[in-house]
User: What shape does this take?
Amino acid sequence: MSILVTGAAGFIGSNFVLDWFEHNNESVISLDKLTYAGNLENLQSLQKDPRHIFIKGDIGDQALVSSILKEHQPRAVINFAAESHVDRSILGPQDFIETNIVGTYNLLESIRAYWVDLDEKSKENFRLVHISTDEVYGSLEINEPAFTETHAYEPNSPYSASKAASDHLVRAWHHTFGLPVITTNCSNNYGPYHFPEKLIPLCILNALAGEPLPIYGDGQQIRDWLYVKDHCAAIRAVLEKGRLGETYNVGGWNEMANLDVVKLLCIILDELKPRSDGLKYSDQIIYVKDRPGHDRRYAIDATKISKELGWKPKETFETGIRKTLQWYLDHQDWVNHVQSGEYKNWLTKQYQ
Ligand code: NAD
Ligand code: DAU
Assistant: This one.
């Protein structure tokens, strides 16, 4: 038995693969295009592990994905592969359309062709878990209730629109072709191996380097933060017990304004690694131009997954961010390689 994980060298994908082997021995085939966001160093500890195979490739390459499915006969596909950064989608939406929409379509077609030919039992047991985001629901006013699974899709950025489109395709392939799919819509993750273009890792690395901590606009935009390992546990629960054709919201019940996130991060860093000049890390906070079309608030109502599948986050923001900060302090090599771009040479160095 094996599972295929796409986008496995990215932030959540790599955490998922590492977390998977902490819980069972079933093999994983990792597929990743290794865009700028894909970092094989994240999976370095599995390099000699016979349970793990890494394949460099695009979810949009039907010939490749079909041959992988045929050869390895996975019982499930977990689709993390995507362009994921909102700011990049504003600067250049093309890659988001290619991967998140066209790529998902091609992946669905490859999986459908594989799935229809499976024997009845394997067909029944097969799952595609599609990993999506709370951003598809749009933005909430401060007094509005958190997003439930029935909230209308109102995406506002090229990124969230492309993810919404991919969710619709996945839904349609279930409804029309009977493909056994489940979609998860998760809030903001943080934790180890997070690429330093996103708020939390960017601020950690900038703080330690004595650089400014850039807050967009007034910093009062609210996100619901979830420690990445809690997200991984939710996905495992959905894979094993989730109902076909359903969507599950995943969140940390942890709403915080961006400014408060960065201030707390600074306070913990002051404790773990005080600045040599005696000043506070929060002195590095600066306010910069806001993100165009910036969504004001996201909040996830995770009642359904909690009631149906018994999943609850283990970490509070305080405990999760402490672990995260300690991880970055303990993994200076990873940080150096990402910052210098050397991580891109990893594949050549290790596998030539
Ligand atoms: P990431 O950008 O860190 O990783 C994405 C990975 O996908 C990278 O390794 C990249 O190389 C790979 N990839 C990109 N295009 C590909 C393609 N065409 N074929 C194969 N691989 C490709 O993203 P992430 O933060 O780990 O997010 C993973 C998934 O979870 C995404 O679908 C994202 O929308 C979703 N999500 C992320 C968050 C979050 O807070 N990061 C929250 C909710 C949902
Ligand atoms: O909600 C889930 C989403 O969370 C995922 O679907 C996305 O893939 C993921 O990137 C993340 O999107 P956000 O835009 O919320 O994450 P980001 O870390 O880019 O920004 C978090 C908040 O911080 C957001 O309100 C913008 C703000 N911000 C971000 C950066 C990079 C700043 O104030 N300054 C910054 O420099």
Q: What stands out?
A: The domain at 2-347 is CATH 3.40.50.720 (Rossmann fold).
